[in-house]
Amino acid sequence: MAAVGLLFVGAVLFINGAMLLGWVDGRSAAPINFFVGALQIITPTYLIFTADGDANVILSAAGLYLFAFTYLYVGLNLSFDLDSTGLGYFCLFVFVSALVYSGLNFTLLGDAGFGVIWLHWAFLWLLFFLVLGLKRDALGRYTGAVCAIQGWITAWVPAFLLLTDRYSAVVTLLAVVLAVAGPVVYGALWVRMRRAPAPPAPAVPQERPVPA
């Protein structure tokens, strides 16, 4: 069930990334945030209630609420044009929590694949904090590009591996590929977007001289 939710996390990350890149209007991105946010409330709640006291299942399920509240918060911000500061500082909380979840996946849960994936998510939520909490608007498009890419490589791909029961067979390879590709891709993207020419300023109409 968690894999189904992960699949749609890929969708909302891609849409939100496209929004930050200016490809998608903000209000039109609100519904998918509500849909996936609601799904990510239902999924971990079901998993926790059916865990039969399994601490590892409860631990993994609890992390899904971090995504649920982020997307619901985004949906509300977009719908009601709220200030982004509160959402930004919640993203700081998610960033710290994601680092902890990464460490727990490497150690307690023995899942190197999601250990690396949580590091990717920690980086993304740190960018969200910088853009939304600290108003670093210059990072907006870069954050959008990282977000859109992560929708595919950290959610869509592992979701289908889990849904087709292939994840266990390729988990080590997935962890190595994501660990190497992440810094390379994000670094190259940063260099490319920094070097990209700024969009031309809009033309300012010249005032016509008033006849004497």
UniProtKB/TrEMBL annotation:
- InterPro entries for the chain: AmiSUreI_transpt (IPR003211)
Transmembrane region(s): 6-24, 31-49, 55-74, 86-106, 112-132, 144-163, 169-191
- Keywords in alphabetical order, please: Membrane, Transmembrane, Transmembrane helix
Q: Which top-rank group of organisms is this from?
A: Bacteria
- Could you identify this protein by its name? AmiS/UreI family transporter
Species this chain originates from: Pseudonocardia oceani
